[in-house]
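ESCALATION

Customer reports they have been waiting on this structure for their group meeting. Please prioritize. Original submission:
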Amino acid sequence: MSDHEEFCQQLATGSCFEYIQQSLALMPQYSPSWYKVKSYELDYYFDTRVFDTLYKQTSQLLQQRVLPDGFKLQLYFYHAKSLISFKRHDEAKHYVNLAVEQLDGAFANFGTPLRLVELANMHYSLGNVQEAFELLTQAEQNFSKHRDPLFWFELYANQALIMHRWGDLAAAEQLRIQALEAGLVIGHKSKLMVAYGNLARTQQLLGNYTSAYQNYLNSLPYLIAGEDDVTHAIHQLRLAEISWQSAQYSQSVMHLKQVKPQLLPDRHMKKYQQLTIKPELMPLLAALNTPDKP
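Update from on-call: job pushed to the front of the queue and completed.
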């Protein structure tokens, strides 16, 4: 699939999103070049979890009768992912099926390793976890000498997702370490943000709080203000939670104060609310909220 980060690599400074918008404005609408850059915009919304906008954009584009095959594949994928984020699973499954059908044909024609990983991801979204795992194993075996770090990043990240689903957190941790190593070679900020965050979460669930805390900290320099604010809020929340789990209560409160709760998704908001009423944290939070006496 298209990658907005690669498109924006030529930028020395400035916002990738603004560059995409400026590029779209200069192109004839619905031209081949417009569709290509439009795919980068959808990729951006997906990576930054802006699912409301992703849903609106894909819904509008799906109304067009004629779409380029490659763009249509991405459209099905992103629309399905946006529906999944809203827990509209039955509707999402329809679009995942459409994407899987098209991607099956695309792989037969092109056979690129990243397409095989994409196909596995689609099957995973459908709940066909074993089939996804077998496809990823096939990709790893057939392309063992492939040098593209993006392929290895996506392969290890998807394998880790399955190991996590199956409850093998130790295996997931090792795969996330390998994904991080590939991400460091790629050097893209959002890849490193994701890699450090995923590894940290797995280590937190394993009870390895020291490493988890450090890796969440490692993710923060790769976040872009104004673009990754939701992820920043989530990572600060996890840092607060890990600090509480480690009995570092003042440190926990420090991170809680950096969370913008209005940005948190529902399940993270619930965790935020639970932390703010922990007996160990309530007095410290109250002290911070008490104005100084004159």
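Sent to customer with the following note: The two ends are 60 Å apart (CA to CA).
Escalation resolved.
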